[in-house]
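Lab channel / #folding
Pinned by the channel admin:
"Please post every new chain as: sequence first, then the structure tokens as a reply. Keep commentary short and put observations after the output so the thread stays searchable."

First post following the new format, from NK:
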Amino acid sequence: MSTVSAPTRLAPKNPIRWSNSRQGGRENALDSIKLGIIGLGTVGSGTVNVLARNADEIARRAGRPIRVASVAVRDLAKARSCATAGIHLTTDPYEVINDPSINIVAELIGGTTLARELVLAAIRRGKHVVTANKALVARHGNEIFAAAEKHRVIVGFEAAVAGGIPIIKAIREGLAGNRIEWLVGIINGTSNFILTEMRDKGRAFDDVLKEAQALGYAEADPTFDVEGIDAAHKLTILAAIAFGIPLQYESVYVEGITKLEAQDIVFARKLGYRIKHLGIARRGADGVELRVHPTLVPMRRIVANVDGVMNAVLVKGDAVGHTLYYGAGAGADPTGSAVVADIIDAVRALTVDPQHRVPHLAFQPSTLAGGVPILPMGQTETAYYLRLQAEDRPGVLADVTRILGDLEISIEAILQKAPSEDETHVPVILLTQRVQESAMDKAIAAIEALPAIRAPVTRIRMETLS
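Reply from TO:
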């Protein structure tokens, strides 16, 4: 008779140690995890506050307490919006990274130069990393994730997109059974606030921008927000985890809101639309569209009714259909909430075999579809809003419709403002059906060449999101 031996149980690489001392009034509590933070600005302070306020709840979720042990700051004397008692403060970020007692490092300083160096240094030291730095992930994520895989650590970046909205986890894990077809997002609160004020109060762009800066929604240099760069960083990340492609920020088409005029917002409303600054990622037969630009959206769509500084992401999966994720896209506590969620995941990962962790970009690294092309803007397809300044005389509109017809561009609607006595040119609004951008480029060039049209023609893309 043969005998079967009991299977050998392998100890985890980082075994959990039990303590006989009392921690929080409990016997035999798990050893606390020591967290190091680099940067104690808005997000860093929010992270510390969330960890302190919800310490017991977080310990129950993570399986052991999490303690902020060390924080690197620029100025030791600066007043903080969080308590720092019991936390070691230093001006040297490498002191945090090189501390052997630190298990997890949170990089919360922003930028892409020093932040990249610090994150890679922490990874080489075998520490899990959490970051809220969307520019860092979008521009250097491929390198960072490869290093993390090599050193068997994780990099959490939930807070890098849409603040407190758990959109990364939703797409990467909650929708893992779907083939994501497209996603659309209002992913910059500053631009959304400006467009909301322009629409509701008829205010000029420059006026609203100044208020956004006074309220702290926009930086002194608002370029990243109003020119779409911030949204492009976030869209790069969302597209990678949705479609299983490498991060490709340089391939995103980016257009800001600085050239929008109040009259276009008014005309859009008359036609049943609202203008939103959207990040759009769509998978097609020929490749992937990645674009950020002002977009007309039908008023009846939920996304069209996301106002102020709020964010929203609409995702279309083949199995689940449409799902919408809405919430605060910035702020100390909302973003701190996302950072803490990643810290909890990192704590859980301490005892999980690296091969069994959720991949950074949702798909196993060896299967990322690096050969999938990102379509140039000329090959994308959408509908259009066109505003022409046309001479007020017979035959002009016929010339315009002839040009569109020759390029097989169908007109969906026309709106013409009645001229006043002293006007020689009047605005004419055309809504077209979907057409390839390259065809629209040709049409606009031909229309602007007409003697009766005052260039330039205003073009705003349209999406029905149906």
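NK: Confidence is low (pLDDT under 50) at residues 1-29.
TO: also worth noting, The chain is about 35% helix and 25% strand.
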